[in-house]
Amino acid sequence: MKRLRLAVLLLGLIVLYPFHGQAQEKKTYTLAVIPQMPVSEVFERWTPFVKKLSQELNVEFKILPYNAISQFETDVFAGVPDFAYMNSLLALKAKGKSGYVPLIRDNNDLIGILVAKKGGTVTSVQDLQGKAIAFPAPNAFAASLYMRALLTEKEKVRFTPDYVKTHNNVYRNVVLDKAAAG
Predict the structure, then answer these.
(1) Are 117 and 88 part of one and the same domain?
(2) How far apart, in whole angstroms, are the C-alpha atoms of residue 14 and residue 73?
(3) Rounded to two decimals, what is the model's pTM?
(4) Of 34, 126, 172, 173, which residue is least crowded by CB atoms under 10 Å?
(5) How do the pLDDT tens digits run along the chain, 182 residues long?
(6) Does any domain span residue 17?
């Protein structure tokens, strides 16, 4: 009988004083993506992945947008984003400066692409001797460091680097004849 009274008392307390427990909020993580393209394109390409990842892990991921590689680097080196998609050189630097740990990597060999305006004056790499060449940023690995090393060491080309913040700006500078190549 005592148990029955205790059960009724507990049930009454629950009914009279409803439990106002809060649903536990999902943990939110930030993902920085190196700005190799306009912010709108980053969102377009990365949103499906981020949504799927959020669903699978039952956490929320938020994309941090960047207009310039330099700002991306500043934030990554300061440890601002929880996760970051970047090239291998930045991954190495980020590990040393802010403790990021690489989670995935690519097995493909590194390649760099150098573009010149179709129908323009550049028909061989040697035509770039003494010319301005556009690069997204000084530390963009394949698009800048690797390409500059190939041009100077392998091809013996001397040039003036012009850092234009994004990969799309490299193409734009070549098309607008602001750079001989990029």
Answers:
(1) no
(2) 54
(3) 0.58
(4) 126
(5) 443 333 333 333 333 344 444 556 779 999 999 988 899 999 999 999 999 999 999 999 999 999 998 899 999 999 999 999 988 778 888 888 888 888 877 787 778 889 999 999 999 999 999 999 999 999 888 889 999 999 999 999 999 999 999 999 999 999 999 999 99
(6) no
With 0-12 / 13-18 / 19 or more C-beta atoms within 10 angstroms meaning exposed / middle / buried, residue 92 is middle
Q: Give me the number of domains the chain comprises.
A: 2
* Separation between Cα atoms, residue 11 and residue 19, nearest integer Å: 12
**Domain shared by 128 and 84, yes or no:** no
Q: Are 171 and 141 in contact (CB under 8 A)?
A: no
Strand order across the 60-64 sheet: 60-64, 28-33, 83-85
Domain boundary among 74, 98, 122: 98
What stretches of the chain adopt beta strand conformation (E)? 28-33, 60-64, 83-85, 132-135, 160-163
Type of residue numbered 65: P
3-state class (DSSP) for residue 132 = strand
Contact indicator for 55, 88 with CB cutoff of 8 Å: no
- CATH number of domain containing 84: 3.40.190.10
Residue-number span of the structural domain to which 32 is assigned: 28-98
Say if 38 falls within a structural domain.
Answer: yes
**Whether the Cβ atoms of residue 39 and residue 66 lie closer than 8 Å to each other:** yes
